[in-house]
Amino acid sequence: MSEAAVQNVKTSKPAAKSGLMRRIVKNRAIYLMILPGLIYFVIFKYIPMGGLVIAFQDYKPYLGMTGSPWVGFKHFERLFAEPMFFTILKNTLVLFLLNLLIYFPVPILLALMLNEVRLNAYKRFVQTLIYIPHFMSWVIIVAITFVMLSVDRGIINEIFAMLGYEKINFLMSSGWFRPLYILQVIWREAGWGTIIYLAAMAAIDPQLYEAARMDGANRFRQIWHITLPSIRSVIVVLLILKIGDVLELGFEHVYLLLNSMNREVAEIFDTFVYTAGLKQGQYSFSTAVGFFKSFVGLILVVLANWLAKKVGEEGIF
């Protein structure tokens, strides 16, 4: 390389740094808006990742991470040899598939229906009505379900009794656990999930609909050929993120529905980690279970993103 070229490389680095600083200063308001979220992820997501090392140790609180003996993959081997492992894996995958196949399309359908409402006052009223459950905790959602479905004075069972039918113990039945779970997820989250889809639909050029109407397309054809293709990239991105949560179903919701009568179909990795880690003090083993969950989610996100790019979508990275 010539002396002039070397000099150009040396001078370009400070110029690039100064250009970066100028952009940061110019857009400082945007970076300040990002800062709280960045601090949150650093403190609560990245720093705790250092604790994953105890999955490879026989961790003792009084010895700490530096003093606890290393045991390699002992806890992972124990996890795969656990008699309950395949039952827990099956339960987790079944609930995930219910979320993916039943819940995931519901916000899209709700958004499509709301997008077709032309009376703004009515549209805002319906949106507010379906958003409200999202702001209630799972404790309240499950408590309402308990009040409605309990055998003793539950409104649903009282109606069954008045009609001459036998009362059903919904909350203690293993057969009713999964339907109750997915219905509660839809009730609480479907309305909130429409926000992103409605925002994507708002960005669609109205002239496309005008041209379609001039060509004689009805409302259904407009949705099929204009609305859905226009929000396809958003659907794909959210689907990839959903697939990444394959083993992350939410501890609180399942734990509140869990009891001794439905444990066979209700026990999932989240509740298993709680039982093994907090109740029984098996910190290293429960960390290994959490590590396994995260690793599977990472692999599935990468695969889903790769498939999305193969079919022509942008993906998330």
Automatic annotation (TrEMBL):
PROSITE patterns: ABC_TM1. CDD domains: TM_PBP2. It holds the Pfam family BPD_transp_1. InterPro entries: MetI-like (IPR000515), MetI-like_sf (IPR035906). Keywords: Membrane, Transmembrane, Transmembrane helix, Transport. It is a multi-pass membrane protein. Residues 89-304 form the ABC transmembrane type-1 domain. It is found in: Cell membrane; Membrane. The chain crosses the membrane at residues 30-56, 93-114, 135-156, 176-202, 223-241, 288-308. Belongs to the binding-protein-dependent transport system permease family. This is ABC transporter permease. It comes from Paenibacillus residui.
